[in-house]
Automatic annotation (TrEMBL):
Residue ranges constituting the HTH cro/C1-type domain according to the UniProt record: 10-63
A Pfam family matched in the record: HTH_19
Domain of life: Bacteria
Keywords, in A-Z order: Cytoplasm, Repeat, TPR repeat
SUPFAM superfamilies membership: lambda repressor-like DNA-binding domains, TPR-like
Family of the protein in this entry: Belongs to the Rap family.
Repeat as UniProt keyword: yes
Organism per entry: Romboutsia sedimentorum
Protein name listed in UniProt: Helix-turn-helix domain-containing protein
Keyword field contains Zinc: no
Subcellular location: Cytoplasm
């Protein structure tokens, strides 16, 4: 990965082939002339370069590449490698590569790469939840993107800063940056509708937090309009398989196009999760508005995207569906989806999700005044949570059991209340 002058390249190649100066010179020139060339003390003709390239078994283009040209190619590939590391959550490796790029950029004055590097550092700090640094990184990136009129990355920077402000519950600041992002989006040629939905979902969420329901629903309608226009189902399994194949190639330094394809495939999967997040956010908005049918609609949309993956997003969607059916008193539907959630958790060996599914079964029976069955399911939760060592949740289960025993056994009611309170006291909660 060294950035070499013409002379340094020739010397390196000669050494790799165990050739002496005289052997490389042959009958064409003298060993002294080769020595001068290797020390960049003399210029070479095209004919001599042709001779040297054949002797060293490389292309003339390789020999002619300047340090600046090499630095651009190397930084391009390092950036792509770092992006793959970020997607794979190997954040320290990604940060190390980006710092290498920044050093090369400084040495060879490649200012156009500074924006991308700062953006990637922001992405790393976002995954690390270091939000103060994230905003600083994205604001630095914005400076360079605006300077280069890079609309797509200007949009992404505003969007990401807005998302940080949402996490910090600074909704007015978030809306301000989302509006900047929306303005850039309207001026650009960004056609990826998932990007539009991500922005509109975040804006809808902020407006509902600011008690501006009408504005929130306007952006939900924009998402609905996109869904009506773009109803294509991604072949997730095939894309994931292709992504893994690209990542397994491993020829990072000389495979820029391979990096790009691998990255695109990884981003497709990431966008899928992003859209699920949007649908689940909309579901929460409608829950606050009291529209349970809409909660079900968007929770089902989220679940339909991720159901084949059987991951945390699928589970999260199922829990929202079950809670909505419970609120609508559709106990049969709630029970069906609860069975699915329990099957997912057992298959994935996720004990906490198994607990949540059992707790929902208990809630279903409790809502139907079947307290003995509710107690039975909640009692199964005790061992799971005890094994996980989650004392806070264990205390909650004991309190819930105390409430269920209220009209069954005063002795049991008091026993479980005391157990729950004792744990809360050890946790300094009460």
């Amino acid at each position: 990965m060294d950035i070499l002058s013409l002379g340094e390249k020739i010397k390196k190649l000669r050494k790799e082939k165990n050739m002496t100066l005289k052997e490389l010179a042959g009958d064409r020139i003298t060993a002294a002339q080769i020595s001068h060339i290797e020390r960049d003390k003399s210029h070479t003709s095209y004919e001599l370069l042709d001779y040297l390239s054949r002797k060293l078994e490389v292309s003339i283009d390789y020999l002619l590449e300047t340090k600046e040209m090499q630095s651009k190619k190397i930084t391009d590939n390092l950036i792509l490698r770092s992006e793959i590391y970020i997607k794979s959550n190997e954040l320290d490796k990604a940060e190390q590569l980006i710092n290498q790029v920044l050093q090369i950029c400084k040495e060879y004055k490649l200012l156009d790469k500074n924006g991308k590097c700062n953006f990637l550092l922001g992405s790393i700090n976002l995954k690390r939840e270091n939000y103060a640094l994230v905003v600083n990184n994205f604001e630095k990136a914005l400076y360079f993107f605006i300077k280069n009129n890079d609309k797509e990355n200007i949009f992404k920077s505003y969007l990401n800063i807005g998302k940080i402000y949402v996490k910090e519950e600074f909704y007015k600041g978030a809306i301000s940056h989302f509006e900047f992002a929306e303005e850039v989006l309207s001026e650009s040629q960004i056609e990826d509708m998932d990007i539009h939905k991500d922005l509109y979902g975040n804006m809808a969420n902020c407006y509902i937090k600011l008690n501006k329901s009408k504005k929130s629903l306007e952006y939900i309608e924009k998402i609905n309009k996109i869904d009506r226009q773009n109803n294509m189902q991604e072949e997730v399994d095939m894309l994931t398989l292709k992504a893994n194949n690209f990542l397994n190639i491993g020829k990072y330094d000389d495979a820029k196009e391979c990096f790009k394809k691998a990255l695109e495939l990884l981003e497709i999967e990431e966008n899928k999760a992003g859209i699920v997040d949007v649908y689940l956010t909309i579901s929460d908005i409608y829950k606050e508005l009291g529209d349970i049918n809409k909660v079900l609609e968007y929770s089902h949309k989220a679940y339909n995207i991720k159901k084949d993956d059987e991951d945390e997003y699928a589970s999260k969607s199922l829990y929202k569906i079950i809670a909505a059916y419970l609120e609508n008193k559709d106990f049969e539907s709630a029970r069906i989806y609860c069975k699915m959630a329990l099957a997912f958790s057992i298959k994935s060996k996720n004990k906490f999700n198994e607990y949540k599914a059992l707790e929902l079964f208990s809630d279903i029976h409790k809502a139907q005044n079947e307290n003995n069955l509710a107690i039975e399911y909640l009692s199964k939760c005790i061992k799971i949570i005890s094994d996980l060592g989650d004392n806070n949740t264990l205390a909650k289960i004991y309190i819930d059991l105390g409430q269920l025993y209220a009209n069954i056994s005063k002795e049991k009611e008091l026993e479980y209340y005391q157990k729950g309170v004792a744990i809360y006291q050890t946790l300094n909660i009460i």
